[in-house]
Amino acid sequence: STQPHVTFNDGHAIPQIGLGVWKATDETAATAVAAALGAGYRHIDTAAIYENESGVGTGMAQADVARADIFLTTKLWNEAQGFDSTLRAMDESLKRLGTDYVDLYLIHWPSAFRGKFVDTWKAMIRLREEGKARSIGVSNFEGDYIDQLIAETGVTPAINQIQLHPLFQQAAMREKNAKLGVITESWSPLGQGKLLDHPGLAAIAARHGKSVAQVIIRWHIELGLVVIPKSVTPSRIVENFAVFDFALSDQDKAQIAALDSADGRIGSDPLTATF
Ligand code: NAD
Hints:
The chain has a domain at 11-190 and 225-232: NADP-dependent oxidoreductase domain (TIM Barrel). Helix content is 40%, strand content 15%. It is built from 10 helices and 10 strands. The longest helix has 15 residues, at 83-97. It starts with a strand and ends in an 18-residue tail after the last helix.
């Protein structure tokens, strides 16, 4: 399909919109993934901790799309950090997913108190050499954690998946990632649904004849971000992908920029998280 992609520092390209499946069971993940692939999505975002990798694999097998045409991301859970345990965790994820490679393997959180993310990154580099992960990256690596990986290994992550939505726009991290040659990917791009009844966003959506979800997803796309909205409802899955037939005006963008808030973060700060 003809959707936009962004290109990593390793030469691989990722479709800008993916389907997120956090909190979906195996069964709902399977139907959501099949619906998304049927609707034109070619990118799925799961994680070992979501406990639905088997369902994602089932959905991929059910859909009429070749494995080679799907961009599949999974993530290493914090408790599996460390060199050998990372290699084992990848094999277990691949078995559940029913595939012999992922397009992108991410360290899910720095989990810095464990003191293991550099060894974990060395294992990710090995997995890329072995072809089990085409690209490797990180998630929730805020502050200077990425600089530590680069300093210790010389290998720059392809991408950093961080919390990013109109209430928490992450300008400093976006700039830092860009400077390092790291693509920024937005998790909880819709603010976990909290933004969908925002009156200012509703007014923008009305001007375009679009939904608030579509306006927010379009905002991520226009910023050059990779965006992984979650839905298990087929009509919303279709809706969230129908964002390539309009563009935000300067006025729209200024209004969305004004929603940014220093305390807009939902959940834990990766710099102080204890999991
Ligand atoms: P989100 O911001 O994508 O919001 C999802 C919620 O919005 C859904 O549960 C649904 O209720 C609602 N929604 C979606 N589309 C809608 C529509 N068109 N109309 C009305 N309501 C709609 O939240 P999320 O699931 O937290 O984030 C998306 C994905 O990001 C996750 O599924 C996961 O893949 C990833 N993620 C990663 C991390 C991380 O630490 N790396 C953390 C959280 C989420």
